Amino acid sequence: MYLCKIAAGREEISRILTWTFYWQGELIWFKDEVIDYSYTTPCLVHSRLYNFSIPNSIINLKEKIFDDLQSAFLAYGTGGGLPEECMEFILHLDFEY
Fold this sequence. Notes:
Layout: E1 2-8, E2 16-23, E3 26-38, E4 43-53, H1 62-81, E5 89-95
Parallel strand pairs: 4-5
Antiparallel strand pairs: 1-2, 2-3, 3-4
C-alpha cells in the first residue's frame, strides 16, 4: 500500500490536494481539502477527504480502506509530510464517500 500526493491547487484552491492510495492491488483517487491546520505543539491537521474513486471490486471494504488510509496519513506526516517542528500532531480526517 502507498499514499502519494499527485497535485496541489493554486491560489484560491491551494487547500485542495489530489491523492492516490494504492490498496490491495487497486488504485484509489481522492481529493483532500485542508480545513484547518496549526503548526504549534502539538500540530493540528484537519482535512475533508472526498470524491473517492473506489473500484467496485473493493467498494464493500471501504471502512477498512478508510482505516488504512488514516494510518497512511499518520505515517506520511511523521515521515516528512509536516514541517520538522511538528514532532507531535493531531490528525482529524472527515471521510465523505
